[in-house]
Structures are given as structure tokens and as C-alpha cells.
From TrEMBL:
The keyword Nucleotide-binding does not apply. It comes from the Bacteria. GO terms for cellular component: cytoplasm. Keywords: Chaperone, Cytoplasm, Disulfide bond, Redox-active center, Zinc. NCBIfam families: PRK01402.1 (NF002386). This is Molecular chaperone Hsp33. GO terms for biological process: protein refolding. InterPro entries: Heat_shock_Hsp33, Heat_shock_Hsp33_C, Heat_shock_Hsp33_N, Hsp33_helix_hairpin_bin_dom_sf. Pfam families: HSP33. One of its GO terms (molecular function) is unfolded protein binding. The lineage of its organism: Bacteria, Pseudomonadati, Pseudomonadota, Alphaproteobacteria, Hyphomicrobiales.
Length: 330
């Protein structure tokens, strides 16, 4: 069933935790934009991450949501970083059609040192390593994984490299996260997390406009702009790059209003928003199935005070089992 499009003002704003697909016909650009509020706040506050770690994981969650909601099949999309910095692991996954979960692993001593020295930019916290994008369509298909290097550049730039290398689609990604300090309805101080992002891709329908940019350094290299790059994409990318981080996270701006600011002169259309939720895929039955694969010695070694407790790294839910539950049926 085709998605219905509408001009700004023809329907209610999507609000937080809803991904808004959009199209700019005058520039042959399609994309998605989102502002995350309560859903993201729940994920981050559950783990009580230090602010630099929370901010970094928030960007990964936004990236995962933007890309995961583009899947046209039932499956899972995962973004994962592995690096040698203070934050050595970040994982976020999106399970169709709407479920998100995420967690971060970090070295507290290295993080404290980084904070003391003022080295808390995302690329400094991640260090050198890899960023992996994994698409899993289930048991009837082999997972696809694309890997790009964590090379000291931002997550925005690394995501752009992924699209350029794996899909050969000109893409610009913008990501931002912010802390909000305000008061609740009772007037008490309140701390919240918000994040936002946008992905724009050049997807022309005319074959003659689908040529890829030439590499720098060849004959006719222009320096600032790859030779042969389409004017429409140059304009679209330039507009996207004017977005301030505050605009992506400001609850008073809203996703549709931001898109209107950027592209109204070119005829931006927005489509039906897609809600996303903080929902983990763990369950007692799944974990029990894993534990039943343990040997008797492993079961014995895993016990504490006569029971086995397993805590999900994503949602922090703890499942407790009696050793007798895990014995094979006679």
C-alpha cells in the first residue's frame, strides 16, 4: 500500500518518537527525519550513563532509527561500533516494524581521564575501530553486513562513507543530541534527553542524472566539488548542512517545521509518520533456551545463592532461574 503524502499544514505534526519520511521533488531527494524524546530518555536513564556516553549512544540510536525504518521487510537492522577509545562498544538495533533497543559499554577510568582532558568529542571517545551496519532478514536469509572504519571523523561523516561505498547513493546524514533541564508540571527540576536527525539521499528517476561523482585528483578536479556532481544534489546537500544541532533537538521546532524551513522553496512533501518504541526483544523463554544449552559444569559455575540470574544488557531486566529448571527432561 503506497504511503500518502501531504503538504505541511494538512495534518497534525508527528511529534516526538515518530520518523517522518519526506520527498523534495524539485531536487530528486528523499529522506527521513526524526526527533526522539521520551523513548530515548527511557533508554538512557535506565542505565544512568555519564553524559558523554549518553550523548554518543543517542546519536547511534537516531542513526539506527533513521535507517531501520527504511526496511521494506520483516527483520532487524543493527548499528554497532567497536573501538579502542573510552567507549569501546555501542549497539543499537531496530526490529521491524517499530522496536528499538540500545546499550553502551565504556571504561570508567579512561572516560574520567578523557573528561578531565576535555577529549569528549564522539570521535575521541570511540577511538580507532569499526562501525558495522547489519541487516538480518531472519532464518531464511544470510545477514548482510557493511563495515566502515572509525577513523577520527564524526558519525555523520562515517555514515556517509557507508552509503557511498556500499550503496553508491549520494547521502548526507545529520545527527544531534542534547540535555534538557526544565521543570515538570509540579514545578520540580527535571532532566531529560532529546536527539534528532535527518538523512537525505539523491535518488533521481532520470537515468542520465544518476551518474556518480568522479574521484578527486583526476583531470578537471574542481577541489571543492567533485567533477560531474549534479546541481540538484549540490543544492540539497548545502541546505542540509545549514541545519544547526539545536534545530534537530528543539521541541518547539518539530520535524515537519524543520523540513519546511529547509526545502519549502522546492516543494517538500511529508509522508505518514512511523512511531518507534523502546522495546527489548529479550524474554524469559529465550534466555532459558540459551541456558539449557550450558553443560552441567557451566550451570554449576553460574549459580549464586542457589539460583542463576541473568540481566539483559539492553533493558536491564533480570531473569532468575532455579537450576532444576535447566535440567534436560528425562
Amino acid at each position: 500500500m503506497a504511503e500518502a503524502a501531504a503538504a505541511l499544514g494538512q495534518f497534525d505534526f508527528a511529534g516526538d518518537d515518530h520518523v517522518v519520511p519526506f520527498q523534495v521533488e524539485g531536487l530528486d531527494v528523499r529522506g527521513r527525519a526524526v526527533q526522539l524524546g521520551p523513548m530515548l530518555d527511557a533508554i538512557l536513564e535506565r542505565h544512568h550513563y555519564p553524559a558523554p556516553v549518553a550523548r554518543l549512544l543517542a546519536e547511534v540510536v537516531v542513526l539506527t532509527v533513521l535507517l531501520g525504518t527504511s526496511l521494506k521487510f520483516d527483520g532487524k537492522f543493527t548499528v554497532q561500533t567497536k573501538g579502542d577509545g573510552p567507549v569501546d562498544l555501542l549497539v543499537a538495533d531496530f526490529s521491524t516494524p517499530e522496536n528499538v533497543r540500545a546499550y553502551a559499554r565504556f571504561d570508567q577510568a579512561l572516560l574520567n581521564k578523557a573528561i578531565e582532558s576535555g577529549e569528549t568529542e564522539p570521535e575521541q571517545l570511540l577511538g580507532k575501530g569499526v562501525l558495522a551496519f547489519t541487516i538480518d532478514q531472519g532464518k531464511f536469509s544470510q545477514p548482510y553486513q557493511g563495515i566502515v572504519a572509525l577513523d577520527g571523523t564524526t558519525l555523520e561523516e562515517i555514515a556517509g562513507v557507508y552509503f557511498r561505498q556500499s550503496e553508491q547513493i549520494p547521502t548526507r546524514v545529520r545527527l544531534a543530541a542534547a540535555e534538557l533541564f526544565d521543570r515538570d508540571d509540579a514545578g520540580k527540576p527535571r532532566h531529560r534527553w532529546r536527539a534528532g536527525g535527518l538523512v537525505a539521499q539523491f535518488l533521481p528517476e532520470a537515468p542520465e542524472r544518476m551518474r556518480q561523482p568522479d574521484l578527486h585528483g583526476g583531470d578537471g578536479d574542481t577541489g571543492n566539488r567533485p567533477h560531474g556532481e549534479d546541481d540538484a544534489w549540490v543544492e540539497a546537500r548545502s541546505l542540509v548542512e545549514t541545519i544547526d544541532a539545536d534545530e534537530l533537538t528543539d521541541p518547539l521546532v518539530g520535524t515537519e517545521r524543520l523540513l519546511f524551513r529547509l526545502f519549502h522553496e522546492r516543494g517538500v512533501r511529508v509522508y505518514e509518520p512511523r512511531a518507534v518504541f523502546d522495546r527489548c526483544s529479550c524474554s524469559r523463554d529465550k534466555i532459558k533456551g540459551v541456558l539449557k544449552g550450558f553443560s552441567a559444569e557451566e550451570i554449576e559455575a553460574s549459580q549464586e545463592n542457589g539460583e542463576i540470574a541473568v540481566t539483559c544488557e539492553f533493558c536491564s531486566t533480570t531473569y532468575r532461574f532455579e537450576p532444576a529448571e535447566l535440567q534436560p527432561a528425562e
